[in-house]
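<tokenise_the_fold>
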Amino acid sequence: MKPGDDVICIDDTTLPEQYLGIRAGEVYTATWVGICRTYLGGDYVGIRLAGVNRGVCPQFGEEDPPFAARRFRPVVKPRVEEEKKVEETV
């Protein structure tokens, strides 16, 4: 995954008191992908999404913390079959 890629959410589970602002099955556009570090969770690959601002994290005070990239998969677009060139013998 890289910025500009369309991604689909595959995991929107949370604790009852949390709200992520994402929904499983919905497609988003990645704006940033990179390594993140949290106090409790250690290092992980994070992703930020166009149109989704998480505000300030109430636990750690980070502005717009990234989602864990494991919650998303790249959208696979169907292949477009090339037209087969057929020569006609006259």
